[in-house]
Write a structure and sequence with these properties.
- The complex is a heterodimer of chains A (361) and B (451).
- Chain A folds into three domains: 83 residues; 57 residues; 206 residues, 3-Layer(aba) Sandwich (Rossmann fold), CATH 3.40.50.
- In chain A, 56% of the residues lie in helices and 11% in strands.
- Chain A contains 14 helices and eight strands.
- Chain A has an eight-stranded mixed sheet, sandwiched between helices.
- In chain A, strand 5, helix 12 and strand 6 form a beta-alpha-beta unit.
- With 451 residues, chain B is of the alpha/beta class.
- Chain B has an eight-stranded mixed sheet with strand order 3-2-4-1-5-6-7-8, sandwiched between helices.
- Classes of the chains: A alpha/beta (361), B alpha/beta (451).
- The complex binds guanosine-5'-diphosphate (2 copies) and magnesium ion (MG) (2 copies).
- One magnesium ion binds next to helix 5 of chain B.
């Protein structure tokens, strides 16, 4: 899914390092030309004096290499900055970052997240010797510092079950993001790892939401706890937990109705569901195809119910993959899984090293 | 919120342009950067954003456009660019009998939107039927059935059949009795070859009058590829953008669709059946900018400019400077006091009756020519018009460059001299042109200013 981003990043890194070497080559050519011409000007004496001063201040070998350049430059009445060219300046960084910024934005990383990467890189790079900069490594570090690896999902649950049962997972998110489908995928995954599961149909609002989750429950042979449309979602969740306790079921998955994060009443509702069901895990279900709004969405849900982690669905649609960076940045929470299709097996454990590797870094 | 940010950035940019005395590079770059950022945050396609920035910069850096002219051009450009980003308004025209097929990404809101439209059109007297062809998503048929019941329209569905083509066959004749048939399909990725092949087959079989793409407002950079792919496969007639009630206001979806020339017919603003609105790009951008239409924007530029101009003029007069630009803005201010004919009406002995309409029009067009002549002058020439009289070759050059005549430019210079003389009058020096001043003016210049 990260195919295109990988290509672009590779090109960028290649180009950027070419730029660095390119910049040196023409300099040498100038030096050669200069030597052959040998037409010293009046001002060169004065400049040589200043040169001496600089010589004392800066490492010798650097100066020796650059003396000719200074002569050349000074003739064109240019500054002495040629000497410092080997260190990454702020301007040079900006120039370098422009290309990277474009690539990240094209790949659906939200503007705010791109700026965070920029800050990280500029802190690490400005003032460093260009020769010593490994762009791929720095970018890897920058993105790596934003993403958080998820703990082992199954171990986490099994560990918790030793203390307390059942383990309650709440899934929330905006409309149509893939909550119900992902709950079915999770149920399937948990069963495969010998954990028993039941579902609570706490989306009592959307037309046929209960029928939809019922199809999954039947397919996967899982008990479903449901009430009528319009009934209180918190109570459906609570009944799911009661059912699990009675029947010694390990995990309760609570499906909730989609809600836009700017709907105050619906956000109050989800807070109430959390209060009543006290989930061990609160998962925000986002879409990989969402643009800059992903930041606002994930942030608001996180502020409201303090998320445990995030799952991004529809990663099969968006080969760009930038949304993971955006939501991780604003929530500081791990991405647990990626949804990669409509089938039960289409659930991939998120691995930040794998993502970074996929980026070609 | 994102939309408001975009509005704010554009507003702030226009304001900065309006109030600036000099549009220097730093100011322009700052404005462009702010607009750029807000467009990116609104999910507008990145390439589109950068192309737009370049067009703004091109006009802004153009040395041949000057002063208020440049301000007007820039404001108009920004306004028009944003408007063209949003595409043109087009109404969904229904025939006596119409069928519409809906398609789009998974969970984008197809089924809900169909139910909304069913209610919308049945309220307007159409006999509406829904046809359910989503055989992929669990309980998709139940959803359509339940929503149809809510909208009180007939739904033709099959909860068992897995082949949509067979469902089409099954209801072919029954559907003929309806004026409007809305067809629900399964969610699909425009890049999924298999699913595109399938929708093409359905399209061939159904031959719908319209194909409408459903896109969520918060979609990011994939909007472009998705709309392009669907457009390529089926030739989309229009788009409906859902989830406009969220914080994202559809920048990605809107601009992607405008780029593929598919008009936005409606926007979805909630989960309830009545939460659908027609899309009005002009009203949308006006709301976005938080102010009136282009006309009123330009008015603002002019009035703000003249406010600061008046002040500037006072300062300049104190310094003893008066340039052609000052002349122009002064003339323009008179113009604004209620166009020249009103001004004329205020001057005793120069009542409207005595000034034929076509002469007034002539004066207006004269002003336009002067304006372009001034635009063709160098800084030096504007500051010291005297050099024009000394070096007549300059007048020729300006006339050629501005597509005016040397006679017109000489006339302008004459007016300049007159007005400079006139500046001795107290009222004008204070930036006020009242009835009294005008009377004095008329007295002094009777017969000299020719209309
Ligand atoms: N391609 C793809 N489709 C998905 C994925 N997750 C969910 N969907 C589809 O997205 C649509 C909405 O999913 P649903 O679970 O009903 O969303 P909910 O409203 O959040 O419960 C359905 O058509 C799903 O099949 C995914 O990872 N990939
Ligand atoms: N907030 C909001 N939700 C919407 C809108 N349109 C559809 N939805 C919701 O989005 C989800 C997916 O809609 P659905 O019609 O099932 O999408 P489909 O898979 O494309 O048919 C449902 O929860 C709908 O209630 C809208 O304009 N605003
Ligand atoms: Mg659901
Ligand atoms: Mg549907």
């Amino acid at each position: 899914m990260f195919g295109s981003l990988k290509e672009k990043l590779k090109n960028w890194i290649k180009k950027s390092s070419e730029k660095n070497t390119l910049e040196k080559t023409p300099k040498k050519e100038i030096i050669k030309k200069e030597k052959s011409k040998k037409t010293p000007k009046k001002s060169s004496k004065k400049i040589k004096k200043e040169e001496k001063k600089i010589k004392e201040e800066i490492l010798e070998d650097e100066i020796i290499e650059n003396t000719q350049t200074i002569e050349e430059k000074s003739k064109e009445k240019k500054s002495f900055f040629g000497v410092f060219k080997r260190f990454l300046t702020e301007e040079k960084f900006e120039e370098l970052f422009k290309g990277l910024e474009l690539i990240l934005l094209q790949n659906n990383v939200a503007y705010e997240a791109v700026q965070a990467v920029r800050d990280e890189l500029s802190n690490n790079l400005i003032g460093k010797n260009i020769k010593e900069i490994d762009l791929a490594e720095e970018l890897k570090k920058g993105i790596g510092s934003i993403l958080i690896n998820p703990p082992n999902f199954i171990d986490e649950i099994k560990g918790s079950l030793e203390v307390k049962s059942p383990f309650v997972i709440l899934v929330c998110g905006i409309n149509g993001s893939g909550k119900t489908t992902t709950i079915a995928k999770l149920a399937n995954y948990l069963q495969k790892n010998s954990l028993s599961v039941c579902l609570a149909a706490a989306d009592t609002f959307r037309a046929a939401s209960i029928e939809q989750i019922e199809v999954h429950a039947t397919n996967l042979k899982i008990p479903l706890i449901k009430k009528d449309y319009g009934s209180d979602p918190a109570s459906v969740g609570f009944e799911g937990i009661t059912y699990a306790k009675k029947n010694s079921i390990d995990v309760v998955l609570i499906d909730t109705a989609g809600r836009m994060q700017n709907s105050a009443s619906l956000m109050r509702e989800i807070e109430k569901i959390v209060k009543v069901t006290k989930p061990d895990m609160k998962i925000y279900l986002g879409e990989s195809i969402t643009g800059n709004d992903a930041i606002e969405q994930a942030k608001t849900f996180n502020d409201s119910i303090n998320l445990t982690g995030i799952i991004l669905s529809k990663a099969d649609v968006d080969e760009k993959g930038g949304t993971a960076i955006s939501v991780a940045l604003v929530t500081k929470k791990p991405i647990l899984f990626l949804g990669t299709g409509q089938n039960y097996e289409d659930l991939e454990i998120f691995d930040k090293d794998k993502l970074i590797e996929k980026l070609g870094l | 919120m994102v939309l408001e940010k975009l509005g704010e950035a554009i507003n702030a940019g226009i304001k900065k342009i309006t109030n600036a005395i000099f549009l220097d590079k730093k100011l322009i770059d700052g404005i462009v950067r702010d607009i750029q950022r807000s467009l990116i945050e609104a999910d507008v396609n990145i390439e589109l954003v950068f192309a737009l920035s370049e067009r703004i910069k091109k006009v802004a850096y153009d040395e041949s456009i000057k002063g208020i002219d440049k301000k007007e051009q820039l404001v108009k450009l920004i306004h028009d660019e944003i408007l063209s980003l949003l595409g043109k308004k087009k109404e969904l025209k229904l025939h006596k009998k119409t069928s519409i097929m809906f398609l789009g990404l998974y969970g984008s809101g197809k089924t809900t939107t169909i139910a909304k439209l069913a209610l919308h059109y049945s309220k307007r007297g159409r006999k509406v039927a829904l046809l359910g062809l989503d055989t992929d998503r669990p309980a998709a048929m139940d959803q359509l059935e339940q929503m149809a019941a809510k909208a009180k329209v007939q739904a033709f569905i099959d909860k068992v059949e897995k082949d949509p083509l067979k469902i089409i066959k099954k209801y072919e004749s029954a559907l003929k009795k309806y004026d409007l048939v809305l067809i629900d399909t399964a969610g699909r990725d425009g890049l999924n070859k298999e699913l595109i092949k399938q929708i093409k087959k359905l399209d061939k079989e159904l031959k719908p009058d319209y194909r409408i793409l459903i896109m969520p407002a918060d979609i990011g950079q994939v909007a472009k590829t998705q709309s392009e792919e669907f457009q390529k496969a089926l030739s989309i007639d229009g788009v409906i953008i859902t989830r406009m009630d969220g914080t994202s206001k559809g920048g990605g979806a809107l601009t992607a669709c405008a780029e593929t020339k598919a008009p936005v017919f409606f926007i979805g603003t909630g989960e309830q059946l009545h939460e659908i609105e027609t899309f009005e790009p002009v009203a949308f951008i006006n709301r976005l900018l938080g102010m009136g239409d282009l006309q009123s924007l330009l008015e603002k530029v002019k009035s703000a400019s003249s406010e600061s101009e008046t002040k500037r003029m006072e300062d300049r007069l104190k310094e003893g400077k008066f340039t052609l630009l000052d002349l122009y803005s002064q003339l323009e201010q008179m113009n604004k006091m209620g166009s020249i004919d009103k001004l004329v009406g205020m001057i005793p002995g120069m009542s409207e009756a005595k000034v034929p309409k076509d002469l007034l029009d002539k004066q207006e067009s004269k002003m336009k020519h002067w304006k372009s002549a001034i635009s063709s002058m160098t800084e030096k020439e504007i500051e010291n018009p005297q050099i024009l009289e000394k070096e007549t070759s300059r007048i020729k050059r300006i006339a050629k460059g501005s597509n005016t005549t040397t006679t017109e430019i000489r006339e302008l210079l004459k007016q300049y001299k007159l007005l400079k003389e006139m500046m001795g009058l107290d009222g004008i020096q204070e930036g006020k042109i009242d009835q009294k001043t005008i009377q004095k003016m008329a007295k002094k210049f009777k017969g000299k200013i020719k209309f």
